[in-house]
Design brief:
This protein is of the alpha/beta class. The chain contains 25 helices and 16 strands. The protein folds into three domains: 120 residues, Orthogonal Bundle (Enzyme I, Chain A, domain 2); 159 residues, Alpha-Beta Barrel (TIM Barrel), CATH 3.20.20; 150 residues, TIM Barrel, CATH 3.20.20. The longest helix is centred in the first third of the chain and has 30 residues. It is globular, with a radius of gyration of 25 Å. It binds phosphoenolpyruvate and magnesium ion.
């Protein structure tokens, strides 16, 4: 059987399926022998106790950082777990039904949550989310976490799940997971981005994938085309093997570009960086032929844990990355939490529109101590390599001023502590919101560089959720509105003598990279996988001709017209395999 979705991370994989179900879904009904009942009650009490301890720790952290008001949400969670009715009902259920704690507890919590189902009051509806959150926390302790489930995989497998958050993708054991397929998500969802960074083939937005597969069945996934094929026949398997070998040979041949610069045929040099999400990827970046790291997403230090990372822990990680790049610049982006990257101990409660909510620099500014801790760690790493600092999601000058003030305070703290750092660290901002585009001239006066985050800039410019698979065909990097935003930003930055990069996924497409160069961008940062492909494209074109091409693209009325123009003018200049790759990646995705 063949299922199609969105190609999220390139590559091919063959192997057995592993169905991954979340805590709520993964609960099995198990009949207990009478002598096992007491032990099960103990396990239940222990799970409640650990959950209470987690919550109390989170609560105190929030109270110290944000004050008692923000900590209240966790008091509510604690109250839910302390409810004597819950304890009694579940104990009674385990004893009377001789069923496992997870099964009885889930049934009880589902019953409580359903009483809020049809209430109009938003406050009460929020309580439903609290109950679900509490239930998940306890179930995690009763069942073991998702990542632990992956550790139990006996052989490498293709994971099929409803959803995996970015932190879960970051934690997948690479030697056990050949690739994954999700029922939801988009190409620029952070889970997809992390998969590309880690070289894990992935497909997203395959509705009903879970119910269509069984654990253990043989499957193939094609991360270029976005296809999952279960029980492929012998000839299909043989074809996959041939293609896997071809991809391996091509990757090898790309290595020859490692020491070549990203320069056009007529000598225009571009700085080509790699995007990293985890320190462990630095080794691959160092040998990818990248001129540096154009975006290090630091959020992953904050996810999948119950408390904040320490300054020392972050410093060691940032220092490692800076050292690995051996004098090449590394842009550390400060925490871009919120949206789809939620750290529960930060106390961000359910938001109706998380991507328009407490996210990025906004969230960081509400936790000044945590923010300064990170800035100190980044500056300390600057004593060991060439470090740049970047703030995400800046929407105006006021936010930038507040961030810079905290940066100044962090530097004073480092001086008092006698810690070494480079005082000349360049400080830039991401341009990801239409407001930042329009205020680029003012923002350029207060920052050393810009990096355009096209993933967000596209979603906010076109008002299209980057994670929504139903909009995936409309979420368009080549929309003239996006291109004009890039041009406006470049002009404003250059007028102030600042350089501009692009670090969103858009830059990783060789054709788009060429167009961005024509629009005047000075730096690109792409996934490690895309570094040699983009370099190869840049080395195939004449810079002279690109400004004219960009001017024509800016006059187009639609993305389709831009794409046709690029096809006519650029494709013939690029190495044929780059064009074929794109044809594969964008081929119609029917079920044929
Ligand atoms: C972007 O928005 O383009 C970007 C690089 O940041 P992120 O994908 O982490 O939001
Ligand atoms: Mg972004």
């Amino acid at each position: 059987m063949r299922l199609s979705g969105i190609a999220a991370s390139p590559g091919l994989a063959l192997g057995p399926i592993f169905r991954f179900e979340r805590e709520e879904f993964a609960v099995r009904e198990i009949e207990l022998m009478p002598e096992a009942v007491e032990g099960e009650l103990e396990r239940f009490h222990a799970a409640l106790e650990v959950s209470r301890r987690d919550l109390a720790g989170i609560r105190d952290g929030i109270a110290a950082e944000l004050g008692e008001t923000d900590a209240r949400i966790y008091d509510a969670h604690l109250l839910i777990l302390d409810d004597p009715e819950l304890l009694e009902s579940v104990e009674r259920g385990i004893r009377a039904q001789h069923r496992n704690a997870a099964f009885v507890f889930r049934a009880y919590m589902t019953g409580i949550a359903s009483t809020f189902d049809n209430v109009e009051d938003e406050y009460l509806r929020e309580r439903r989310a609290d109950i679900a959150d509490c239930a998940r926390r306890v179930l995690r302790h009763l069942l073991g976490t998702g990542t632990r489930q992956f550790d139990e995989l006996r052989e490498p497998a293709i994971v099929v799940a409803h959803d995996l958050g970015p932190s879960e993708v970051a934690m997948l054991p690479r030697d056990k997971v050949l690739g994954f397929v999700l029922e939801v998500g988009g190409r620029t969802s952070h889970g997809a981005i992390v998969a590309r960074g880690r070289g894990i083939p992935a497909i997203v937005s395959v509705p009903a994938a879970l119910q269509s597969v069984r654990t253990g069945a043989t499957a193939a996934i094609d991360g270029y085309l976005g296809v999952l094929e279960t029980d492929p026949g012998e000839s299909a398997l043989a074809q996959y093997r041939v293609r896997m070998e071809r991809a391996r040979v091509r990757t090898e041949s790309m290595r020859s570009l490692e020491h070549e610069p990203a320069v056009t045929r007529d000598g225009h040099k571009l700085e080509l960086g790699a995007n990293l999400e985890l320190p462990g990827e630095a080794a691959a970046a160092a040998v990818s032929g990248a001129d540096g790291v154009g975006l290090f997403r630091t959020e992953f230090f904050y996810l999948n844990r119950t408390e904040r990372p320490t300054e020392e822990e972050q410093y060691q990680a940032y220092r490692y990355v800076a050292e690995r790049m051996q004098g090449r610049p590394v842009i550390f982006r400060t925490m871009d939490l919120g949206g789809d990257k939620v750290a529960s101990y930060l106390g961000v409660t359910h938001e109706t529109n998380p991507f328009l909510g407490l996210r990025g620099i906004r969230l960081a500014l509400t936790s000044p101590e945590m923010f300064r801790t990170q800035i100190r760690a980044i500056y300390r790493a600057s004593a060991h390599g060439r470090v740049r600092l970047m703030f995400p999601m800046v929407s105006g000058v006021e936010e930038l001023h507040r961030a810079l003030l905290l940066r100044d305070e962090a530097l004073v703290e480092l001086q008092v502590a006698g810690q070494a750092y480079d005082p000349k660290v360049e400080v830039g901002i991401m341009i990801e919101t239409p407001s930042a585009v329009w205020m680029a001239d003012a923002l350029a006066r207060h920052s050393d560089f810009f990096s355009i985050g096209s993933n967000d800039l596209i979603q906010y410019t076109l008002a299209m959720d980057r994670d929504n698979p139903r909009l995936a065909h409309l979420y368009e990097p080549l929309d003239p509105a996006v291109l004009r935003s890039v041009r406006h930003t470049v002009d404003a930055a250059h007028a102030a003598g600042r350089w501009v990069g692009v670090c969103g996924e858009m830059a990783g497409d060789p054709q788009n990279a060429v167009l961005l160069l024509g629009l005047g961008v000075d730096e690109l940062s792409v996934s490690v996988y895309d570094v040699p492909r983009v370099k190869s494209a840049i080395r195939s074109v004449q810079y002279e001709a690109l400004s004219e091409l960009a001017a024509r693209a800016l006059r187009c009325e639609s993305a389709e017209a831009v794409r046709a123009l690029m096809h006519r003018e650029v494709d013939r200049l690029l190495p044929s395999f780059l064009v074929q790759d794109r044809a594969q990646e964008t081929a119609p995705q029917g079920d044929a």
